[in-house]
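Reviewer comment 2.1 asked that we show a complete input and output for one of the modelled complexes. We chose the hypoxanthine case, as it is the one discussed in the main text.
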Amino acid sequence: MNKPIDIQLLQPTERFADYQANIAARIDRGAEAKAHDGGARVGISRPHESAALHVAGEATYIDDIPELRGTLHCALGLSPVANGRLQGMDLDVLRALPGVVAVLSAEDIPGSNDCGSIVHDDPILCSGEIRYLGQPVFAVIAQTREVARRVAARAKEVLTIDAAPPVLTPQDAHAKGQYVVPPMHLLRSESTPGGDEQAAVRTAIAAAPHRLKDTLEVGGQEQFYLEGQISYAIPKEGGGMHVHCSTQHPTEMQHLVAHALHLNANEVHVECRRMGGGFGGKESQSGLFACVAAVAAAKLKRPVKLRLDRDDDFMVTGRRHCFWYEYEVGYDDEGRLLGAEITMVSRAGHSADLSGPVMTRALCHFDNAYWLPEVSIHGYSGKTNTQSNTAFRGFGGPQGAIAVENILDTVARRLGRDPLEVRRINFYGKDERNVTPYAQVVTDNIVHELVDQIEVSSDYKARRDAIAAYNAKSPVLKRGIALAPLKFGISFNVPHFNQAGALVHVYNDGSVLVNHGGTEMGQGLNTKVAQVVAHELGVSFECVRATATDTTKVANTSATAASTGADLNGKAAQDAARQIRERLAACAAARHGGDAADVRFANDKVDVAGRTLSFATVVGEAYLDRVQLWSDGFYSTPGLSWNRDTLKGRPFFYFAYGAAVSEVAVDTLTGEWKLLRADILHDAGKSLNPAIDIGQVEGAFIQGMGWLTTEELVWHPQSGKLTTHAPSTYKIPTANDCPPVFNVKLFEGPNFEDSIHRSKAVGEPPLLLPFSVFFAIRDAVSAAGGHKVDPPLRAPATSEAILNAITAVQAGG
Ligand code: MTE
Ligand code: HPA
Ligand code: MOS
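Response of the prediction step:
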């Protein structure tokens, strides 16, 4: 699939040579040289640490953990109504059914009935106010899962609800002024810093040679992790609770369960070896299931497992926020954006969840790779009677950036220019034109050389001409091409989350165990962290084993999110391993002579005072010398600051960049389309593991393509029922949707910042690469109208949406 591209095409451009010279000057090579070289365990394409277990079906997910004797099964009774008040529940009817052990409601929660992650506005079970269709109202605990599910499905018969009409769309919520968090405003004026910036932005737009005013709609997206939400709660002695939970955030699960059970954090133990995918959907929303399972287990004093089936997972949990935008921009004859004002309204759902930080990230990504001298961005998180929307790969970043990309695409068409040229002219500069709307200075800009490279390697210009020639002769099938760049800010936009801890144990046979606060969801975090530890100790990868994330080992962890897993936990594990290495070096030098600073660890060997010993020998000697062979490690990202009121500061440690070129063919009679070729150049810094990073890039590209094309969420306009709640009606991409030509490369160049081995976070940024697919489709649709009319294409660009847009351009607007 990943065909090598012609090496000729990859000759560095002149700008790239400049870039290399520049970066060489900026990175202190002296310090790098002194750093430990552990026989290069990093920068190597190793298979995922669990690859063999994955393909053999032997990797243990929560539902594979052998069940303890007496385990009971739970299913949730869901509200059949989207808005209203619960008047009564006849749960005794259900309690009397065979196989049912208990039916629990909000009253049975001994502590607080809340699983809100930031704002405490999220009931575990309904306590009167019906907020969305699918809201958990009661929990059935039965001898078997089948009985629990069958009984829970009778919710409609036993609930009496006073129904009210639901508010479903962000526009409706905005019209009513109902939000889950206060509105946010991000303003910056180059001309009037600190003055009336709003007025300055309006003036800049009004004074511009051209103006564009429009609206845009972009849909949400279901995480569709292959392993659904699941928790298995096991009561422990003295009222303690052990929860196996498929979660990106074990510490938060610990806190939520402790609050629900009225326990201290030290009485709750949460563990997760791996998830079958999280994609943000298990950052906060695993909480409800952990709490229900724990409440039931505590009440019945038996182990209780709660595993959702796919439909319930769709009906209960939230997903990527859909956005609605209204904007006005002013631009010059070459397409430079001189002023921009945009209002973004998200569908937050019934509670705050992570909607505030998601909107913050959306506001901070409207700039994408472009300098906006006069900009005013308004964010509203609309409160609706739908599932509470949450984190999903990109976390609002994609929703922010696609708006400016759509604007530039339109500006280019209006001016009759190639969109790539209009994008380029707006790029952030290197030493000027480099301040973001949130006042962070872009100091690591590589977008110019990266885009230059992919323009050449994808043969963009020649293919654009070939497509124009093809379209001129092809009345029904139209082709389109687009190049889309990305810049993505790395760090949690809540500064204190940017910390991590790790534990490294060296056993006296020389084997190594690493435990850290991050979670494994398939992204290869444990592989990367184990590589870092192996590198630091100079041992082979096979000597290092990573264990389950566990709140009894590393405390107060952050969610594995914001793509920071390897950055944070890699640094923390390196810190732990380095301390052990230094103790081993001191011990070896004391025994064998020489200076501890000269002891070298590489390839499972230790060079000390002219002798070469095995790592295990040195470890064994250190044990006899009573040296501590395990260590903790800690890391906090330096230099971050954030003012929540003004939305200014330095929220990001650095930026990751990338660009993709996509070519599509669209059938103008049916709206069907095909991705013919995609070229990607993505910046993972000095990659810790190129194979894993390329996998992340390819996965994010295809996943994001699904978001922008086939994945459509439809809530019934009257009942508020999510009608697309299963793969039969909700279409995610498959392996067959990969383009036949798929050239994926990592940009060569280290992180300017001192990140773990100069790598860059890679989990989320490439989700923006498939913008190129959307704009290629838009280009093909535009061709159907002779490029005279701007296609009114919404996302997702389903065949239906494409056909509507074609109809519009052919009718002349
Ligand atoms: N890759 C796989 N295979 N499965 C996942 O669930 N989640 C994504 C990304 N890549 C995900 C994934 C999201 S949303 C994030 S934030 C990052 O991985 C988290 O992991 P990292 O910080 O270790 O990259
Ligand atoms: N990403 C993911 N989760 C978060 C973030 C973020 O930027 N900020 C707060 N929680
Ligand atoms: Mo990722 S959306 O930050 O879990």
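Residues 248, 280, 283, 391-393, 395, 561-562, 764 surround dioxothiomolybdenum(VI) ion (ligand 3) (CB under 6 Å). We note this here for comparison with the apo prediction described in Section 3.2.
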